[in-house]
Amino acid sequence: MNAKGREISPRRTAPVSLSQPCGQAQLTSSGLLVCTQDGRVNLLREGQPVASLPGFHARVAGNVIWVHHGATVSRWVDYGEGAPAKYPATEWEAETPEPGAVLLASEQGLVQLYVRETVDGSSGAGELMRYALSEGRPVTFNTQLVQNVTGVVAASVEEGNAAFVGWKTDNTGGLACRMPFD
Fold first, then answer.
1. How far are the Cα atoms of 8, 33, 48, 51, 59 from residue 15, in angstroms, in the given order?
2. Is the pLDDT reported for residue 87 higher than 80?
3. Residue 85: beta bridge partners?
4. Which has the closest alpha carbon to 126: 163, 93, 161?
């Protein structure tokens, strides 16, 4: 529902000509175009700019837009018209994404999964940062998932669970992890 209590239904949008490059494009369920490029998250509705936010990474889930910018994460809600609203008003303190980090989103949470190498570079540990809401307030969880991994090769969110697939550092095979997400 939008801010006026009207039901929002997914709709198709007409092709839009962009006046600037767009490194990564995503659509909210209401048709807001979320375009990430050069440290900005530009938001366009029917081809017209409605907002521009600082951010290097953005992920869309339904009508929720998660923006990761340096040491903060913010959550925005698209109500189907005008600019989206930030909810909650405060931001999460965050770790800057590691190179190769995987970001997954649901309407209630954002997960950042990355592999942190040991000092000698011989192995790594898969770590997960989860940003979520608890009683309308931002909360952060940090979990060390697995030891001796080199990277994440696939990730998805389904039915309230996050699933990750990676490789062991000794190349003896793969590993998989599935955990509650929301």
1. 20, 11, 12, 19, 21
2. yes
3. 77
4. 163
Instruction: Decide which of 141 and 65 is more confident.
Output: 65
pLDDT of residue 83: 94
The CA dihedral of 60, 46, 49, 26, to the nearest 10 degrees, is 20
Residue 106's identity, in one-letter code, is: S
How do strand 72-77 and strand 64-69 relate by DSSP bridges?
A: antiparallel
pLDDT by residue (tens digit) across 21-61?
788 899 999 999 999 988 899 999 988 899 999 998 899 99
Rounded CA gap, 155 and 32, in Å? Answer: 25
Q: 3-state DSSP call for residue 40?
A: strand
13/30 Cα distance (integer angstroms) = 9
Contact 36, 115 (CB under 8 A): no
Provide the whole-model pTM: 0.73
Q: Which residues contact 104 (CB under 8 A, 6 or more apart)?
A: 59, 110, 111, 113, 155, 156, 157, 162, 181
* Spatial CA neighbour of 60 closest among 40, 75, 39: 75
Q: Rounded to whole angstroms, what are the CA distances from 155 to 20, 54, 56, 130?
A: 30, 26, 20, 14
> What are 110's two structure tokens?
């954002």
Summarised one tens digit per residue, pLDDT across range 98-127 is 666 778 788 888 877 766 665 555 556 666
